[in-house]
């Protein structure tokens, strides 16, 4: 059981990440725009898959042959004979993103604003804590000198 998990994990990592990363590099280096488009679609699909996988690994890890099915899915995504990532991107992901693009952009903008505001607020609190600690330290030093 452990050996099967290790083997499927290795195939998923090499087939789903390392090979596509190197193939993307080669397409960039050789300026092959058609391949770049294919690999960019793959990375978008892989991003969606990774988000789904995060939940699936928690919820359905117990399902028989789960890891083997995941490995086969990743191979289906990358193999040029199947063009799984291109199919998923063109059939599901692209239409969904186009349909919800305005809402997604709005959510991203809102989150960026919230992160910025929270960071500024936390920074102010941090400065206040440091100022208070410095004043207390100076007061202690002065008390010890007196």
Protein architecture, described:
This protein has 146 residues and is mostly helical. It has one domain. It has four helices and no strands. The longest helix is centred in the C-terminal third of the chain and has 62 residues. The radius of gyration is 25 Å and the shape is elongated.
List the helices and strands and how they pair.
Elements: H1 2-29, H2 33-59, H3 66-78, H4 84-145
Features of this protein?
146 residues, mainly alpha, 4 helices
Question: Residue share in helices?
Answer: over 70%
Low-confidence stretches: none
Task: Briefly note the structural class of the backbone.
Answer: mainly alpha
The count of β-strands is: 0
Q: Biggest sheet, open or closed, and with what strands and sense? A: none
Shape assignment:
elongated
Number of domains: 1
pLDDT averaged over residues: 94
What Rg is obtained from the alpha carbons, in whole angstroms?
Answer: 25 Å
- Give the DSSP E fraction (strand runs of 2 or more residues): under 5%
Distance between the termini: 72 Å
């Amino acid at each position: 059981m452990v050996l099967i998990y290790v083997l499927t994990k290795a195939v998923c990592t090499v087939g789903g990440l390392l090979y596509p990363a190197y193939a993307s590099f080669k397409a960039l280096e050789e300026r092959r725009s058609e391949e770049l488009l294919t690999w960019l679609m793959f990375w978008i699909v892989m991003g969606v898959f990774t988000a789904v996988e995060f939940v699936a690994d928690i919820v359905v890890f117990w399902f028989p042959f789960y890891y083997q099915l995941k490995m086969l899915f990743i191979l289906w995504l990358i193999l040029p004979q199947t063009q799984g990532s291109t199919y998923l991107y063109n059939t599901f992901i692209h239409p969904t993103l186009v349909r919800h693009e305005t809402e997604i952009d709005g959510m991203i903008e809102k989150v960026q604003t919230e992160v910025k505001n929270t960071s500024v607020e936390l920074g102010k609190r941090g400065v206040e804590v440091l100022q208070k600690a410095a004043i207390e330290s100076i007061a202690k030093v002065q008390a010890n000198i007196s």
